[in-house]
Task: inverse folding
């Protein structure tokens, strides 16, 4: 079964879903990693050096 | 005497450094004994990879030629800074009072001369081994000159970015090859245009590569100072 | 002296322990709401395109990601220039944060572009001018990040990274120009938003995409900047305590 036939049979929704899952998943994962790293590092740094808090 | 003494000093420093580097290359014979054989080896390997009987080699000559130039040129550039890294020569160079921009231009010049030698040899190599008939001399020569300038100006700048680091052998190709992608595209297309007898299609590429070289000469002249200060 | 340094490190547990602040908290909430709106309009309310069908929905996240990958690249170049000019550590970190977030969005652009190309062209990858220059942008950013993450002295690493970061913009321009010429020579189809004027709900969805993904970008750059800032503080702190310990050892013996 060629790719084009597959696309016609199932429509383009699987690709749309995959694209959105990739985008939201990666952005969420990156945000989570950043926040977790920030929390771990914050414990090691005195508050007067964290100028934003 | 001269209206702009800074430029005169820069150029004379450049000449000094270029002469020193080239003398070093001639005496050490590393380029002769290792880089040039490597370049020829690449040509032979391409012939093994692409069946010579189907005319693929002749058709792909421009691309194969410039890939061979880039890869063997990388070796020459690695060397250009490896010779400085040994025995604290970098410090001596910094203390020598030569202008950083002069050092940059000198190194670029010596790399360019080595590249030109490589390119001539590889040109003979493809003509003989791949049976490519050579036409459009003017465009070919212009491409070689401009592409050499582009590769050596960018190569020298990124060479000093990677110099003196433990990871320099792996870092330089990663930094330099994506940057040189436009030069590879341009020189290959220009060669194709020359060899297929439609040189008018090749000249815009020569222009693009000149812009590239000009950007890197300026970046190198101004960026070499800060880069030489540290480490 | 020694005890004071150690004491202040321990005392840090009392303060807020994250990279968040009131501003980023509010920004984060607005971002999440706008992402919800994007899902609502992009996936549910907007209609399918006459030419592209449902695949047009990929564009609502693809086009903003592509734009922001270039914005991040510019941010890195600006940060690098200001660092070289003023020796500003702050801007050096902005450059780093910008590059890493730009690399993320470049990767997302490539991934969504491929997922759009498969149903539209039948293949994941064509040597289209835009696709190719985006891929080259990714490689250039990876080069910058490789230099920025070197384990070397601060000055060495920062200066070299700044030179590479500064050259990102001219490189991107030359690469784009060369790739465009390269492809137009061969007359292949270029990727465009189907030319047909998009309007109404589709236009609004694309607009929502731009707004929400830009908010995500800003939120990420701020947080990534703060993490990088903390890393630098921890490095400096670690060095200080190590030196202090050494001194203490010397006093005892």
Result:
């Amino acid at each position: 079964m060629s790719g084009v036939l597959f696309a016609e049979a199932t429509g383009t929704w699987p690709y749309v879903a995959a694209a959105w899952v990739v985008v939201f998943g990666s952005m969420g994962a990156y945000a989570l990693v950043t926040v977790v790293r920030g929390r771990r590092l914050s414990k090691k740094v005195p508050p007067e050096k964290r100028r934003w808090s | 005497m001269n209206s702009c003494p800074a430029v005169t000093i820069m150029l004379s420093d450049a000449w000094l450094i270029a002469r020193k580097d080239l003398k070093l290359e001639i005496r050490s014979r590393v380029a002769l004994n290792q880089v040039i054989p490597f370049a020829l080896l690449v040509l032979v390997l391409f012939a093994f990879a692409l069946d010579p009987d189907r005319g693929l080699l002749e058709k792909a000559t421009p691309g194969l030629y410039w890939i061979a130039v880039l890869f063997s040129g990388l070796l020459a550039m690695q060397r250009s800074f490896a010779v400085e890294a040994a025995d604290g020569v970098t410090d001596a160079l910094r203390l020598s009072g030569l202008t950083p921009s002069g050092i940059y231009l000198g190194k670029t010049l010596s790399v360019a001369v080595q590249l030109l030698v490589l390119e001539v040899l590889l040109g003979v190599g493809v003509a003989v081994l791949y049976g490519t008939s050579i036409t459009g001399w003017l465009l070919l020569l212009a491409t070689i000159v401009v592409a050499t300038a582009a590769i050596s100006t960018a190569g020298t700048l990124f060479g000093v970015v990677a110099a003196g680091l433990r990871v320099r052998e792996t870092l330089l190709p990663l930094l330099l090859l994506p940057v040189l992608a436009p030069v590879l595209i341009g020189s290959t297309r220009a060669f194709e245009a020359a060899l297929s007898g439609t040189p008018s299609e090749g000249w815009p590429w020569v222009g693009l590569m000149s812009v590239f070289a000009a950007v890197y000469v300026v970046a190198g002249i101004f960026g070499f100072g800060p880069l030489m200060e540290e480490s | 002296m020694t005890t004071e340094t150690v004491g202040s490190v321990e005392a840090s547990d009392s303060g807020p322990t994250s990279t968040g602040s009131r501003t980023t908290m509010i920004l984060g909430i607005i971002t999440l709401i706008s992402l919800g709106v994007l899902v609502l309009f992009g996936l549910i309310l907007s209609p399918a395109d006459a030419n592209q069908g449902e695949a047009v929905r990929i564009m609502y996240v693809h086009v903003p990601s592509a734009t922001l990958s270039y914005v991040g690249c510019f941010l890195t170049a600006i940060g690098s220039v200001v660092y070289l000019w003023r020796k500003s550590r702050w801007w050096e970190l902005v450059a780093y944060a910008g590059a890493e977030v730009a690399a993320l969005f470049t990767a997302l652009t490539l991934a969504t572009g491929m997922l759009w190309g498969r149903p539209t062209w039948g293949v994941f990858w064509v040597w289209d001018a835009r696709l190719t220059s985006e891929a080259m942008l990714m490689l250039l950013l990876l080069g910058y990040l490789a230099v920025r993450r070197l384990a070397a002295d601060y000055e060495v690493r920062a200066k070299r990274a700044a030179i590479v970061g500064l050259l990102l913009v001219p490189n991107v321009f030359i690469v784009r120009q060369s790739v465009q010429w390269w492809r137009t020579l061969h007359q292949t189809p270029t990727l465009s938003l189907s030319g047909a004027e998009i309007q109404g709900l589709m236009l609004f969805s694309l607009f929502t995409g731009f707004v929400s993904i830009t908010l995500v970008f800003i939120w990420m750059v701020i947080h990534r900047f703060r993490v990088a800032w903390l890393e630098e503080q921890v490095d400096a702190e670690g060095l200080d305590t190590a030196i202090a310990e050494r001194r203490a050892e010397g006093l005892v013996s």
In short: The mean pLDDT of chain C is 82. Chain C touches chain B through 29 residues (CB under 8 Å). Chain C has one domain: 23-191+198-236. The two ends of chain C are 18 Å apart (CA to CA).
